[in-house]
Amino acid sequence: MIHLLDKQTDTILAFLKKEITAADHEDSLKYQEFFDFTVRIGEKSQYAKERNRVIIQGEDGFFQEFIIRQTEKTAENVYVKSDASYLDLDRQRIIEPITWDGQTLESAAGQIITGTEWQLGTVEFANSRKVTFEDYQGAFQALKQIATLFESEMRFRVEVKGNKISGRYVDFFRKRGQYRGKEVVFGKDLIGIRRIEDSANIVTALLCLGPEKEDGTRISTIVVDEDALQRWGRKGRHLWDVYEPESSDQDMTLDRLTQLGKMELKKRINSLVKYETTQAVLDSIADWTMRKYFWPTPSGLKTCITHLLFTRKQELTRLREACSISRRKNMSLGISSSTKRKMSANDLKNFRNFMALR
Question: Tail spike domain: from which residue to which, for each copy (predicted)?
Answer without folding.
Answer: 87-293
